[in-house]
């Protein structure tokens, strides 16, 4: 028997990431090849015509799993009955803008979208915030959608996680599917800490430590970390546009693993509400290693943290605490 369609919201749906993301969802990449979907696409009024064009293309693609498209500039209509919300829309930082200006714009956007989700979304709606500053946008959304369980509000660090997998795969000349258990700690920003201390590579002789196989601590503690941290900027430099294909793909990975579960023995990185694990201050949305089962994520516990990692983890937590204070000052 065919399951009932799942309503999936994508905000900023007429933008670059939205345009890459919606066909992936309609093709079953996010929720699986047997799960029908109804797409709810939201954008701002100036993008209404472009949004309608996206809807036309979705109709033209004749996706068998796509059971309907709601394309709207009305936030209440967009949020109505959705079980999954991918928040791609936000206010990008423009030249000459101070961080507080950008934060203030995004606080007001996420405050109103949180209220609409609170009132109109399905009760157990799962939320993924993609728009930057993703961690703090997610925190604002959590504040203003108190009836959505805090475990259901997350932000995207899977893109950084996948970038780290890709760098190790290239360095060791192995398949990316043979690399697992890297960790992104902290903020989706240039202070994030890509940690390979627990990562492994599948070889014919079994799983081996990534650090031992790379055998170059200077690269792992230097160029590897900075490449992952700065990859978004490198793509803007190369394409003159920000990452869209990879961001959309990793958003699908994030939701798919959250809903359908992570493979046994594998963890992934998600920005989630901190409970104080690994001495990260509670009350931040911080990226941790997690496993997922039956629609619930759990932070992987008991990993050894060396002094180098501790400093990096604390530095990105400090930045998130500053962002939180800045965001809350915009509310007063």
General description of the model:
The protein has helices at residues 16-26, 48-61, 75-79, 99-120, 134-144, 158-172, 210-214, 217-221, 223-239, 245-260, 307-331, and strands spanning 6-11, 37-42, 66-72, 84-87, 126-129, 153-155, 179-180, 183-185, 193-195, 200-203, 206-209, 268-273, 285-293, 296-299. With 332 residues, the protein is of the alpha/beta class. Strands 3-2-1-4-5-6 form a six-stranded parallel beta sheet. It has a three-stranded antiparallel beta sheet with strand order 7-10-11. A three-stranded antiparallel beta sheet has the order 12-13-14. Helix 6 (158-172) packs across helix 9. The chain is globular and about 55 Å long. The model has no long low-confidence stretch (mean pLDDT 96).
What layout of secondary structure does this protein have?
Blueprint: E1 6-11, H1 16-26, E2 37-42, H2 48-61, E3 66-72, H3 75-79, E4 84-87, H4 99-120, E5 126-129, H5 134-144, E6 153-155, H6 158-172, E7 179-180, E8 183-185, E9 193-195, E10 200-203, E11 206-209, H7 210-214, H8 217-221, H9 223-239, H10 245-260, E12 268-273, E13 285-293, E14 296-299, H11 307-331
Parallel strand pairs: 1-2, 1-4, 2-3, 4-5, 5-6
Antiparallel strand pairs: 7-10, 8-9, 10-11, 12-13, 13-14
Helix pairs in contact: 1-10, 4-5, 4-11, 5-11, 6-9
Q: What keywords describe this structure?
A:
3-stranded antiparallel β-sheet; 6-stranded parallel β-sheet; 11 helices
Topology, number of strands: 14
Q: Could you tell me the mean pLDDT?
A: 96
Beta-strand fraction estimate: 15-25%
Sequence stretches where pLDDT stays below 50 over 5 or more residues:
none
User: So what's the overall shape?
Assistant: globular
Structural class: alpha/beta
Task: Report the order of strands and helices.
Answer: EHEHEHEHEHEHEEEEEHHHHEEEH
